[in-house]
């Protein structure tokens, strides 16, 4: 229950100020504050205390009407001359009605906003219940610590424990009506402007302040009515309440005045949004909201879409907005919707911003996995419009398996590009990238990668132009295709394109680079970040992501993750056309298909991929990794005959491609291992070569296969140790315990956890050994030591304890 004397409660700080005034020898006092600060209550308490101290002297409180009129100075001087002590409460704090000759004999008590502690103590005083910290904070912020608003709030609330809906306009309408009843017309207009987002002391400045020569006086009027907070801006509760109750005609009046005078709408974005939400509509507002959408297009495409919607609602042309809206959809990853809008524009025959429409559509088709459609559109646009950059046209054609060195359209575009303007770095980069792409088809792999990397470094670090295959990412994929994961990572880390699909591609490239460097944790992190930003319609990126996750699962022997990655891939395969820059993923999925006995599901896609490469002349740079993965798949499937064509292709490429040479040497060594006719030194050399070009995992498998087929115990141990060192380069050979012992569990080393996990999956000791590059006898010894430590009497009891142990360490 609210206490009856709550209206007379004063914060301890005010009581301290009263004591200070009483200690002052000055006979009179002035109490200053804003409307509703409680000056009468303070003045009466001060007068009562002064009366007790003066005993025989009269103490008079003069406020309101007592201090009105032309003769106020004479009356105040007369009362003071009779020996009375005065407590004056003037209407305005800035101009106290006190004769100048009496100012020296007055002590001033200035009331300040309540602190959060004052608010908390007042609420507790009113309800005998300690309020929540959230209520205290929100009430203090909303009211600016103004006592009148705080007292009003508590008069409407039954308990401070109720939800603190402090900004509910319904709480404040009547209180604000009283507070604003005496505002002048300019000040009232200013409140309306501030309620829709204008500011007093910073941009966007309220129009009323810019137009009046009484700026300080108008702001002072609002402050005296306690409508401004500690920061000098409109109180939150005032802004919310006034904004909700503002009629449309007032919003329209302000809106028309504002939009006609705006040259740069960016600082006024919040105001424009409020005007639109309030019902303001006009032709100029349509232009302004469209401009705001354009300014947000690269940095915040979601906001750009919202601005374009407002522009359309304000009367903007749909055909004018369509190209920009399509680009915004592309930048948030909704490539299907972007492509649909572009198709509508192209089919309509309108020539509004066709360059943007074509660029958007080409990127959207690539991201959806429709590389042939992207190629067709690029070819049409290069002839009909002449606007597709030569490097984009070339990359799109090569990605689709369309050899283009002898094509006149590409050469024509490339030849005219340098003369179209100054030889900027951007033009030089594009020309260098074009040469790099063409060279990548001729066999000079190192030169091709060097040109692409050079082009990537010439470009700005954050290009915003739409491109189906950004040069920096082309350079990264090319570097990976020659086994240079370090360069691939460096190029990808430097590239920070603002287009969201390209950011996802960048994460995927970094993930593949980490995978080839043996950083499986980093690869998983990049895969997760790519997945977080993927839109459902970005099927190409989803396929590349599935390939990356499949590669991670293979290297961590995570069967569940491998199955999930394969499932994700199969949802894309029928709808995505393989392109030149997604072959790494297809190769990894080829190995996964063999492991999961699902090879028929990938046959058509592999045939298309090999046909694509054949159409390009089987360039070693792009074909080598796919051939190597095909070798790995054939080995895994135990089909030596299927190795031959891919091994032959690697041998042919080895003449001009060092990466292919290392893989060819490893493939040859592997065939000898399968035939049980190999030299251990040659195997070690091949394994070392694989590790140097990012294929350490496959090198470990080669060493393990050779160890399992070697008749020399020393060579067997050496090869097995080589396999283990490549698979776990940082493994602690002392095998420390994996965790503290728990009743019912078994204390296991990290290696023993791996062995147990595979045994519980139903694998034989030989299969476990092949997975972990151990001999079957070593696996058997691991299990024997585990059983001895466990104290289990039966196999069933042992397996139960092992299950419990894995649950604890997982």
TrEMBL record:
UniProt keyword annotation of Transcription regulation present: yes
Domain HTH luxR-type: 741-806
Matches recorded under CDD domains: LuxR_C_like (cd06170)
Name of the featured protein: Helix-turn-helix transcriptional regulator
Transcription keyword on record: yes
Superkingdom field: Bacteria
InterPro entries cross-referenced by the UniProt entry: Sig_transdc_resp-reg_C-effctor (IPR016032), Tscrpt_reg_LuxR_C (IPR000792), WH-like_DNA-bd_sf (IPR036388)
Lineage per the UniProt record: Bacteria, Bacillati, Actinomycetota, Actinomycetes, Micrococcales
Region annotated Disordered, chain positions: 399-425, 725-744
Low complexity composition bias: residue spans: 411-424
Keywords linked to the UniProt accession: DNA-binding, Transcription, Transcription regulation
């Amino acid at each position: 229950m609210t206490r009856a004397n709550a209206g007379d409660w004063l914060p301890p700080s005010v009581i301290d100020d009263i004591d200070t005034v009483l200690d002052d020898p000055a006979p009179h006092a002035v109490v200053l504050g804003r409307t509703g600060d409680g000056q009468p209550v303070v003045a009466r308490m001060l007068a009562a205390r002064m009366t007790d101290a003066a005993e025989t002297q009269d103490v008079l409180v003069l406020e309101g009407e007592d201090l009105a009129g032309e003769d106020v100075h004479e009356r105040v001087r007369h009362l003071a001359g009779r020996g009375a002590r005065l407590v004056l409460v003037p209407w305005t704090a800035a101009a106290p009605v006190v004769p100048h000759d009496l100012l020296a004999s007055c002590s001033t008590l200035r009331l300040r906003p309540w602190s959060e502690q004052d608010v908390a103590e007042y609420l507790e005083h009113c309800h005998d219940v300690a309020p929540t910290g959230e209520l205290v904070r929100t009430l203090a912020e909303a009211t600016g610590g103004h006592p009148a608003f705080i007292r009003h709030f508590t008069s409407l609330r039954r308990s401070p424990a109720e939800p603190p809906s402090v900004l509910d306009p319904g709480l404040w309408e009547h209180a604000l009506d009283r507070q604003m009843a005496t505002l002048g017309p300019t000040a009232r207009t200013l409140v309306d402007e501030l309620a829709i987002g204008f500011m007093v002391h910073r941009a966007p400045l309220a129009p009323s302040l810019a137009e009046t020569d009484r700026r300080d006086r108008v702001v002072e009027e609002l402050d005296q009515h306690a409508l401004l907070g500690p920061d000098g801006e409109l109180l939150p509760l005032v802004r919310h309440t006034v904004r909700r109750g503002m009629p449309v005609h007032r919003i329209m009046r302000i809106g028309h005045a504002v939009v006609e005078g705006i040259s740069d709408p960016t600082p006024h974005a919040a105001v424009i949004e409020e005007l639109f939400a309030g019902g303001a509509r006009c032709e100029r507002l349509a232009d302004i909201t469209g401009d705001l959408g354009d300014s947000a297009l690269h940095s915040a495409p979601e906001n750009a879409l919202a601005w374009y919607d407002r522009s359309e609602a304000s009367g903007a042309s749909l055909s004018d907005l369509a190209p920009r809206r399509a680009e915004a959809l592309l930048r948030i990853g909704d490539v299907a919707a972007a492509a649909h809008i572009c198709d509508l524009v192209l089919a309509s025959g309108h020539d509004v911003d066709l360059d943007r429409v074509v660029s958007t559509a080409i990127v959207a088709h690539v991201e959806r996995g429709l590389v042939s459609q992207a190629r067709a559109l690029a070819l049409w646009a290069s002839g009909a419009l002449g606007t597709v950059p030569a490097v984009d046209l070339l990359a799109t054609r090569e990605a689709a398996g369309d050899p283009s060195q002898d094509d006149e359209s590409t050469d024509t575009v490339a030849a005219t590009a340098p003369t179209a303007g100054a030889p900027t770095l951007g033009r030089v980069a594009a020309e260098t990238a074009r040469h790099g792409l063409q060279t990548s088809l001729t066999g000079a792999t190192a030169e091709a990668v060097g040109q692409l990397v050079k082009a990537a470094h010439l470009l700005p670090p954050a290009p915003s132009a739409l491109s189906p295959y950004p040069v920096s990412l082309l350079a990264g994929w090319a570097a990976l295709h020659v086994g240079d994961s370090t360069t691939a990572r460096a190029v990808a880390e430097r590239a920070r394109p603002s287009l969201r699909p390209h950011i996802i591609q960048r994460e995927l490239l970094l993930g593949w680079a980490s995978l080839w460097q043996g950083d499986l944790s980093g690869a998983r992190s990049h895969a997760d970040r790519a997945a977080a930003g993927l839109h459902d319609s970005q099927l190409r990126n989803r396929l590349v992501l599935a390939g990356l996750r499949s590669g991670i699962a293979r290297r961590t022997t995570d069967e569940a993750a491998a199955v999930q990655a394969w499932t994700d891939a199969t949802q894309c395969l029928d709808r995505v056309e393989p392109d030149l820059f997604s072959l790494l993923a297809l190769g990894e999925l080829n190995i996964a298909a063999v492991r999961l006995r699902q090879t028929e599901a990938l046959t058509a896609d592999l045939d298309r991929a090999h046909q694509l490469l054949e159409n390009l002349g089987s360039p070693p740079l792009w074909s080598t990794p796919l051939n190597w993965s095909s070798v790995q798949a054939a080995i895994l499937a135990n089909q030596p005959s299927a190795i031959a064509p891919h091994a032959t292709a690697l041998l042919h490429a080895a003449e001009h491609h060092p990466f292919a040479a290392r893989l060819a040497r490893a493939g040859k060594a592997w065939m000898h291992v399968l035939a049980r006719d190999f030299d251990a030194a040659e195997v070690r050399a091949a394994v070392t070569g694989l590790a140097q070009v990012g294929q350490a995992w496959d090198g470990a498998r080669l060493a393990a296969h050779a160890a399992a087929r070697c008749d020399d115990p020393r060579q067997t141990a050496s090869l097995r140790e080589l396999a283990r060192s490549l698979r776990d380069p940082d493994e602690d050979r002392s095998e420390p315990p994996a965790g503290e012992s728990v009743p019912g569990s078994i204390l296991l080393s990290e290696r023993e956890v791996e062995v147990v996990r595979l045994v519980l999956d139903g694998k034989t000791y030989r299969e476990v050994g092949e997975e972990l590059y151990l001999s079957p006898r070593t696996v058997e010894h691991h299990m024997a030591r585990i059983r001895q430590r466990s104290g289990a009497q039966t196999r069933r009891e042992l397996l139960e304890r092992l299950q419990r142990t894995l649950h604890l360490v997982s």
